[in-house]
Amino acid sequence: MEHSNxxxxxxxxxxxxxxxxxxxxxxxVLDGIDLDIIExxxxxxxxPSGCGKSTFLSxxxxxxxxxxxxxxxxxxxxxxxxxxxxxxxxxxxxxxxxTVLRNVAYGLELQRRLPKAEIRDxxxxxxxxxxxxxxxxxxxxxxxxxxxxxxxIARALAVDPDLLLLDEPFAxxxxxxxxxxxxxxxxxxxxxxxxxxxITHQIDEAIFLSNRxxxxxxxxxxxxxxxxxxxxxxxxxxLKHTSRFQEIFRHIWQLIEEETGKMGxxxxxxx
Amino acid sequence: MTxxxxxxxxxxxxxxxxxxxxxxxxxxxxxxxGLGTTLAALLLWEIAVRIGLADxxxxxxxxxxxSAGYQMFADGSIYPHLAISGLELLVGxxxxxxxxxxxxxxxxxxxxxxAAFDPIISALYATPRIALVPLIVIWFGIGLGSKFAIIxxxxxxxxxxxxxxxxxSVDRDFVKVGRSFGASDRQMFLxxxxxxxxxxxxxxxxxxxxxxxxxxVVGELYAAQAGIGFMIxxxxxxxxxxxxxxxxxxxxxxxxxxxxxxxxxxxxxxxWRPTNRL
Lengths: 271, 278
What we know:
Oligomer: heterodimer
Largest interface: A-B, 31 and 26 residues
Number of strands of chain A: 10
Strand content of chain A: 15-25%
Structural class of chain A: alpha/beta
Shape of chain B: flat
């Protein structure tokens, strides 16, 4: 890991509780998360399901208020959503009543900083960047799942965020499309030159995409281990069949299995 | 990307077929079935009166209604009534929309506001508006004012209640997107909540319109000096069945035309909805 680049995201001792209003108790979900993401890095977070991965991402986006610690983007403290972060949602949460182009333009329209023509041009560029040229005037209902997630990514990128947050963006796609989209995401991020945080429950997806994989413990979540992915930077699909890839996979699998056991659940399947 | 674009052309570019009579009949099947049945019913009615099965004093007949209607338009006696009722509908219904839509969005969005106003709205909604007519006449007189008020009160609740339901059913994911992109409350209403509740809203507008038309007749039957409802009441009191029927048909016709107009608007807003038809 090159540490010459500046730190983009710095999370220190992040705590977050869910309030149960019926029993008037707090459930601790995040229990002191420390995490740095360097500019240009792609860091994935994996962990047992329900451990608080997505909650942490919502906290970084500013959608949820944290109850302890702090999150800084480029030294600015996060208190609410802002245009320095772009969130790619898990489900295709595109507005079905807007065309592809106007979905991508949404964030820019809200900002009201640019004139209309410029917003259109900019949105057009990002539609092109994710490989959907020619589909500007299509409605989301007319697109396939993979195409919709491209639009989802373009919408987040269009506001030119410093940090892209992806919340299991390929979870709803079929296996083949998912592999293809992982590959595409790397190309898109490379072209757009973005730093990204990626939430997933797929270990191979995390390894394939990332510079580092952060493993969360069972709830309340702490950082259990940060795994450096020492694979060549040029990621190709056959990388998944190399012994080093498998080795990392088994290691992370074991870490998660230990945590799943703690939650009193049987470990799921075999590696 | 070339593979995807060509794929779309292949499935999207439908072949235009030669227009044929069967094709035309099939395409308009629903309209033709409706029209045919209606014409048959009218014909039976006319025949029943002509062969003496029904007394035209009580039932009138399609040809009598037609000629009465023609005469009222020819001598211009219908126009003042149409103008008055039209004005009442326009003002009362528009006011109802202008109040109900913004209020519905606020009540649907802010949980506490809804809790505060819910008992009043439910009580007023459950009260038959007809029961309020005498009170409204005491307040606003027998002129236009009371009709505006009656139509307003008739139309506002269906629109309000549907708007509230629409706002409450907006997909939480859409709201999250708005939040994440830093939408202000106003932007959230305009870019997320309003477009997402369009189907509910238009259902409300359609129900509201029906209630507004009832409001016109009820208001004018009770106390008025002009209007289609007033004309119906007068014709009824003087056994002019033909004229009475003309009034009923005008109200029904207005309902059909305006409902279809709303349907057109709905289609305009629903352009994006992928149709299942091939």
